[in-house]
Each structure stands twice: as C-alpha cells, then as structure tokens.
Amino acid sequence: MTRDPAVVGTMSDDDHAPDHGNAQNFNMGILPSLVGFNLRRAQVAVFQDFATSLQSYRITPGQFGVMTIIQCNPGLNQTRLGEAMGVDRSTVVAVIDRLESRRLVRRAPSESDRRSYALHLSDEGTSLMTELNPIVRAHDRRMASRLSREETAALNRLLARLAAS
Amino acid sequence: MTRDPAVVGTMSDDDHAPDHGNAQNFNMGILPSLVGFNLRRAQVAVFQDFATSLQSYRITPGQFGVMTIIQCNPGLNQTRLGEAMGVDRSTVVAVIDRLESRRLVRRAPSESDRRSYALHLSDEGTSLMTELNPIVRAHDRRMASRLSREETAALNRLLARLAAS
DNA sequence: TATTGTTATACTCTATAACTATA
DNA sequence: TATAGTTATAGAGTATAACAATA
C-alpha cells in the first residue's frame, strides 16, 4: 500500500489555496484549492448572516432577489424573471406561489399576452422591501467589513468574471 | 407618487459593483452591489459547470466534498463530518444515507464509542474518487482560467476571509 | 448530564417531462 | 410550431425538536 489516506489530495502544485483556518483539525485534501469550494464556504457564511439578520421576516436571499427584480422591473413575466435569476421557468412557479400566498407579490393578467402574468409587488411587498433594504445593506456591509473597500471591489469584479458564462 | 420603480435601489454610493453583463436588459437594483448576490451568481456558474463535467457520475459538489473529507480523515464520525462541512448532524444523516445506498461510503462500528460510526470510503468509493479527482481539477482549472493565476489566488484568499466567521 | 445518531417534520431550491392555453 | 405557465415528479440541501442508546 503506497496510499496514505491522510495525504490524498494534499496541496502540491496548487499554491494558490488558503489552506488555513476553515475547518479545524481536518485534512480537507484538494478542497481548499478549488474555487468552487471556497465559493461555497463564503456563501454559506454570508447566507447564514443574512438569515440571522432577517430571521423575523422569514425572507431568503433568493426571495429578496426575486422581489428586488420585480420591484425594479414591474410587469415582467415569470419566464423573464427566471432568465434574470438564472433558473428554470418551473422553478419560478413555486417561488412566486410562496410569495403570492404571503401577499407580497401579485400575478396580474398581462394586457398584451393572455398566456402570461405581469408580476408586481403588492403594497405590503413594497413596504416590506422598504423595511428590508437598509437591513440587507447593513448585513452586506458587515460581511464586506472583513475586507477593505478596494478588496470588496476587487472581489465583486472577480466574481462577476467567474459568473460571466 | 415620487417613486419610480425602475430607479429603486439603483447604484448610488456603491461604486464597487460590477453592474454590467450579468442579466441582460434587467434592472437588478441593489443586487449587483451585494457581495452575497455576486457570490451566488458565481457559485451557480461554477456548480453548473461541475454538474456538466460530472453528469455521468451523478455526484454533486457537496457529495464530492463529503467523500473527500472522509477519504482524508478515514474513521471520523458523522458529527465531526458535519463540523468539517459546516452543517448540522441531522443533515449529515441523509447525505450519508444517499452515499451508503450507492455503496460509496460505509458506516463501520466505532471501536472506541458504540454510539458512533466510523466513516470510510468503500473500495468503489475510493476508485470513484480516483476517477473523479482529475475531472474535478480540470473543471476547476477551466473555471479559474477566466482569471490569471494571481487573480485566482487573490480570489481564494478573499473568499477564505469572508468565510472565516 | 452530555453526546451520537436518528426520526419526524418542515421549508427551500432545483430540474425534466408532459400538459394547457395561447400566440 | 413556439411560447407561458403549470403540474407531477424527483432529487438535494437545510434546520429544529425530540428520542434512544451510550458515555
């Protein structure tokens, strides 16, 4: 047996890995060298802070995103919302179902195309967003406060290039 | 009415936002300025490439992470695996159930503590990981190829600092 | 008393395939 | 033919609360 499990996947040619801190006392193998893994860990941390910051509102990051897009593009239909969010039409159905059942979003009949709905925030949805926006901004500033302003800008640019598929 | 929906949440004091490209023709409001949002978009892109690269294996990024940690820390129990992954013990149960039902992971009785299991990869799991590792590395290099080597290193460092909660 | 794994329960997110109404 | 929304179905991930076995 030439294989020592504790060494499988250990850093070798990959010097661009953080390799410290994340999970104490565990050998994480190849993982810390993978952009996808670091992305996931960062996102988990950010999402948990988001959830804590907004726990009394029971709004997920995805729902906040959907409501923001509807607010900024009132009247758009579900298919285009899916495009904006990068998810399938069928996924949008359940998301809107949930928000509509909480009276935060309305499905209005489209005037130009009877197959589709025009999505709008309800009055409650609009005032909820007014309440939520400063909280979300504060949450994001708290997250970003671990980085300098320049680092935050650099991070957002790098992430955008990664996302530009 | 002083509120124009198309302007709600528009960039103002936040100059550290990418603001271009991501979703064509949609006003994304505050979203492009949020680290959490850019994180999510980047992760979606990376995960989709991961899924495409490994579609014939039906392995998710999370499952690959779990199998890597088990391979590098053979015999660890579910609670410590949960700590390493940053998820609850109850979440680990279902994850291991799935991998065990596919005969990739084994729950062996712990010799020191009869409450817990010692987790190991099966032989199939080990050889699957041998097959997967170069594919995952290639996938990650393809993702990171949108950035220079220095940028990738910087990104990983920034993400690690964000994740260090 | 505390910990490990489990179950029950619930919520969210995601996609594919097939269907309907409409374009 | 193509598109918008839907449903059925499936899989994955996540957590809380309570429980039995064990420490």
Structural description of this entry:
Chain A has helices at residues 35-53, 61-72, 78-85, 89-101, 123-144, 149-163, and strands spanning 105-109, 117-121. By secondary structure, chain A is mainly alpha-helical. In chain A, strands 1-2 form a two-stranded antiparallel ribbon. The longest helix of chain A has 22 residues, at 123-144. The model of chain A is unreliable at 1-23 (pLDDT under 50). The interface between A and B is large, with 78 and 78 residues. Chain A binds a DNA duplex (23 and 23 nucleotides) through residues 60, 62-63, 77-79, 87-95, 98, 110, 113-117.
What's the structural blueprint in terms of helices and strands?
2 copies of one chain form a homodimer.
Chain A lengths: L34 H19 L7 H12 L5 H8 L3 H13 L3 E5 L7 E5 L1 H22 L4 H15 L2
Chain A binds a DNA duplex (23 and 23 nucleotides) through helix 4.
The helix/strand class of chain A is: mainly alpha
Instruction: Please give the share of residues in helix of chain A.
Output: 40-55%
* Proportion of residues in extended strands of chain A: 5-15%
**Which two chains share the most extensive interface?**
A-B, 78 and 78 residues
> Radius of gyration of chain A from the CA trace?
21 Å
Defining traits:
homodimer, mainly alpha, 2 strands, two-stranded antiparallel sheet, disordered N terminus, globular, 165 residues
Short note summarizing the structure:
2 copies of one chain form a homodimer. Chain A is built from 6 helices and 2 strands; from the N terminus they run H-H-H-H-E-E-H-H. Chain A has 165 residues and is mainly alpha-helical.
